[in-house]
User: Which sequence fits this backbone?
């Protein structure tokens, strides 16, 4: 039997799984919580060494777990990697020492940087380069974070500095051998590169004009590879000598892991944020409704497949906020029970614009609000409104996707931690007005996608159909009530905008 190990390095945790390449079944897994740092208002950071340490721990532990189940290390033939995207790391090429904490994708310290960059474009618009890179100028993307580092951390502007998103940081360290004086492989894949604002979507290479605009020396950038090829070999630990053979950004990995291989097929991942992607085939579709154009995946020498994406900054993060900031639940799983104690939010709306609004608004001036509170309102109404907020945000993205793609979506495949909440999925179906589908094992779609890519590169993937039962949720809400609720939501969103002057 043949197995693949897949690492899913996320914003709040690192996970590793071992997948049977003949059945697609996960046979071993290990998860480690990864703390975030909030040093100032709007700042979100992670220690790069903790990203690395939790990855080593997950790899070695899951190999041991597999071994205890009778799976020898020799049967695990390689490693696939998926990661939180846009999060930016810079380090010294000689010592490997990080020059600053990893700046997380959620971080919005760069609002002033964005204003300066927009003002420097010929059209004075955030969307000036969107036809080249598929993205607006926003605090979300890596090049903006890198520009901030170049402006504020003197060491970053020196020679001998390497830049990377989390995948690059991990690949470089996993393949580096200090004892033998062997440098790590400095590489990324097309999906992660497409989230930096520096890669040209057509050429799939670093764009000279974009690098010049952001003032980035191309020497610090990694080599761009496909999503399924051998990047290098692991230099230490229990997987020593094994190839790293697959790499995708987490949302593209989930699209791949959900088998959204045909044009028009879509998935939504409900993690810290929410990310809906629809496959547009080999066509680069430019959005006119606030969506992003991104690379979905590229398997070896095959043509790149593209996607339209709608990104929501605050998805499952709102549940963490209810737990850690409001203290109205003691664990994330309690939100389903609490919100279920009321039959509706009773016209209470929660816009969780903690760091501004992403798609389709792209408004960094928005801030969170809870509106419609009465003397009758209680913690259960707030909890329910928080879950509904995620549903409404996804609905607005769906409407934009239907308009941009010209294809009306009939079913949405879902994955991620929030999909364990069946009440939430019923809410989502009601708000969307279409069927929502969730596979029993789909919470691991991200890790599955990276594992599939690696196994395909190594020629060992034998699975045609994903394992597990498919749960479907159909809308019960009438069209009139759905439209009224969405209109009220959009009203609340407008009230949240322009708060930051």
Assistant:
């Amino acid at each position: 039997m043949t197995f693949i190990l897949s690492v899913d390095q996320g914003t709040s945790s690192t996970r590793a799984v071992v997948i049977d390449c003949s059945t697609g079944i996960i046979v071993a897994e290990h998860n480690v919580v990864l703390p975030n740092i909030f040093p100032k208002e709007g700042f979100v950071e992670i220690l790069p060494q903790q990203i690395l340490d939790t990855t080593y721990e997950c790899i070695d532990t899951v190999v041991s777990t597999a071994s205890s189940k009778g799976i020898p290390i020799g049967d695990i033939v390689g490693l696939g990697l998926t990661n939180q995207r846009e999060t930016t790391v810079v380090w010294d090429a000689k010592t490997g020492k990080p020059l600053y904490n990893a700046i997380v994708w959620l971080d919005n310290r760069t609002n002033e940087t964005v204003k300066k960059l927009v003002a420097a474009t010929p059209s004075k618009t955030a969307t000036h380069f969107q036809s080249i890179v598929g993205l607006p100028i926003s605090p979300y993307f890596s090049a903006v974070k890198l520009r901030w580092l170049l402006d504020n951390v003197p060491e970053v502007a020196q020679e001998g500095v390497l830049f990377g998103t989390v995948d690059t940081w991990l690949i470089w360290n996993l393949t580096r051998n200090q004892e033998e004086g062997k440098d790590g492989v400095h590489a990324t894949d097309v999906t992660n590169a497409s989230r930096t604002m520096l890669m040209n979507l057509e050429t799939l290479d670093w764009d000279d004009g974009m690098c010049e605009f952001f003032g980035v020396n191309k020497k610090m950038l990694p080599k761009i590879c496909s999503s399924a090829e051998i990047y290098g070999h692991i230099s230490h630990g229990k997987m020593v000598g094994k190839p790293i053979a697959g790499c995708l950004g987490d949302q593209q990995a989930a699209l791949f892991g959900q088998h959204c291989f045909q044009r028009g097929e879509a998935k939504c991942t409900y993690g810290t944020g929410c990310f809906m992607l629809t496959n547009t085939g080999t066509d680069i579709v430019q959005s006119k409704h606030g969506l992003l154009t991104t690379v979905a995946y590229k398997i070896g020498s095959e043509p790149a497949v593209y996607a339209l994406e709608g990104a929501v900054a605050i998805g499952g993060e709102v549940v963490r906020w209810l737990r850690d900031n409001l203290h109205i639940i003691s664990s994330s799983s309690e939100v389903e029970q609490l919100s279920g104690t009321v039959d509706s939010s009773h016209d209470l709306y929660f816009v969780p614009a903690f760091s501004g609004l992403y798609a389709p608004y792209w408004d960094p001036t928005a801030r969170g609000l809870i509106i419609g509170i009465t003397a009758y309102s209680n913690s259960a109404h707030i909890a329910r409104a928080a879950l509904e907020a995620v549903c409404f945000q996804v609905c607005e993205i769906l409407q934009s996707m239907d308009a941009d793609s010209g294809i009306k979506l009939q079913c949405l495949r879902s994955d991620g931690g929030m999909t364990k909440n069946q009440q939430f999925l019923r809410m989502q179906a009601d708000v969307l007005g279409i069927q929502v589908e969730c596979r029993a094992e789909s919470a691991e779609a991200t890790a599955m996608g990276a594992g599939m890519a690696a196994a395909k590169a190594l020629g060992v993937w034998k699975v045609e159909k994903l394992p597990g039962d498919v749960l479907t949720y159909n809308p019960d809400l009438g069209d009139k009530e759905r439209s009224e609720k969405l209109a009220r939501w959009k009203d609340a969103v407008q009230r949240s905008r322009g708060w930051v002057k």
Q: What stands out?
A: Residues 229 and 406 are 33 Å apart (CA to CA). The chain has a mean pLDDT of 92.
